[in-house]
Write the structure tokens for this entry.
Amino acid sequence: MPDPRPHLGEPLALDLLNTRYISADGPQDLLTDVAGLRQWLADNTLDLPADEATLKAVISARQAILRAVKGETVEDLNTVLDHGRIRRLLTADGPATEPDVAHPEWLPAWLAADNLLHLLATAPDRIKQCAHPHCVLFFYDTSKNGTRRWHSMTTCGNRAKATRHYARKTQADGE
């Protein structure tokens, strides 16, 4: 079954936030069950088991990431990060790193939290929420000058332009 979400392809942490979205039927949540978790894992090429314990951990990480991105608190994110660490090792191909998570159900949650750290270290000002007032989606602004406002110009951007155009036309017609 194809992913029903309107916006895919963001970095892992933001894609996890985007498991909550708005459709024509109102607010939606991909992570209401294990099937939705399985979909999210597959969309992000995470070949990991989907079960109730993993679902609970991923939902916890989503909330922690949201609170960190909104500047509310970092403690929840640190709690998720406490479930793992980066292990450094030397392989036949040279130095390598790999995630080391004691409880496997926390691996996808930990990977998403770790991804947020990478985004924050690289360009925290590029983590944005769509500027459309009725959109809840997040994106990583990859535009050259960092001024992107919409998760998608074809949906939210065009809606905003149409609303402004209608308001100008209505005002001009009323004069």
